Amino acid sequence: MLDAAEHLFARNGFYGVSVREITELAGVDVALVSYHFGGKRELFAAVFRRRAEILNLERLALLQEVRGSALPGIPALEDIVTAFTYPLLERSARGGPGWKSYFALVAQVNNSPEWGPVLMTEHFDPLVEKFIAVLREAVPGCDPREVYWGYQFLTGALTLTFAETGRIDKLSGGLCRSSDLDSVHQRLPRFVAAGFRALCARVPPAARPPRGNSRRR
Amino acid sequence: MLDAAEHLFARNGFYGVSVREITELAGVDVALVSYHFGGKRELFAAVFRRRAEILNLERLALLQEVRGSALPGIPALEDIVTAFTYPLLERSARGGPGWKSYFALVAQVNNSPEWGPVLMTEHFDPLVEKFIAVLREAVPGCDPREVYWGYQFLTGALTLTFAETGRIDKLSGGLCRSSDLDSVHQRLPRFVAAGFRALCARVPPAARPPRGNSRRR
DNA sequence: AGTGTATTTCAACACTTGTTTAATAAACTG
DNA sequence: CAGTTTATTAAACAAGTGTTGAAATACACT
Question: With contacts defined as CB-CB under 8 Å, which chain B residues touch A125?
Answer without folding.
Answer: 167, 170-171
